[in-house]
């Protein structure tokens, strides 16, 4: 093991580190081992360098976590070629969900940053612009955004964490805990072979957008 670390240190010393590479490797480490692994020493061990080598690129753990949050958000592509306001919103929240699911541990780290990256507000700007195009006023557009972001992040959290087992109707059916309790609609409707998170997300997104469309037509 010592020989492997030494070899890697020589390679990194030759190629050199930069802030972008440090942050990219921090994201890899967070995805692999969880947010608790993001320490200066832990990252240094991951890179095969001394902790002091990192201080040329990040000033502290606080700077490391802040930079990691910026690195993660800045690499999400929210661009959309479709001009229809509903499709622009749909594309935005699909990409946000994909980014969160791709790096669940890093997302948890972002909750600890003191100042959110400026780019974290891009989904809000995209949504408000789209709803303005639909004819929805500013105050109601903000409510619409809050509904969309709350739904999306709730779905992401549920998918990452998994259902609360005591409140999982499918689990209750498997264990026959609610058999004969008069819940006939649950017994007919709840699938026993797993939950399709993507289908559920798309359904919810369509319902919200349909509601916003109806709201815009009434204004």
Beta-strand percentage range:
under 5%
Q: Which whole number gives the mean pLDDT?
A: 85
Note the gap between the termini. Answer: 68 Å
- CA radius of gyration: 22 Å
* Rough outline: flat
Q: What profile does the largest beta sheet have?
A: none
Number of strand segments = 0
Please identify the structural class as seen in this structure.
mainly alpha
Q: Which ranges are low-confidence, i.e. pLDDT below 50, for 5 or more consecutive residues?
A: 1-11
Q: How many helices in DSSP terms?
A: 12
Order of helices and strands, N to C? HHHHHHHHHHHH
Q: How helix-rich are the residues, as a percent range?
A: 55-70%
Identify the notable features of this structure and list them briefly.
68% helix; flat
Characterization of the model:
This protein is mainly α and 219 residues long. The chain has helices spanning 2-15, 19-33, 40-47, 51-54, 61-74, 85-102, 104-110, 122-133, 138-161, 169-174, 184-189, 197-218. α2 (19-33) packs across α5 and α9 (138-161) runs antiparallel to α12.
Q: How would you concisely characterize the structure shown here?
A:
By secondary structure, the chain is mostly helical. It has helices at 2-15, 19-33, 40-47, 51-54, 61-74, 85-102, 104-110, 122-133, 138-161, 169-174, 184-189, 197-218.
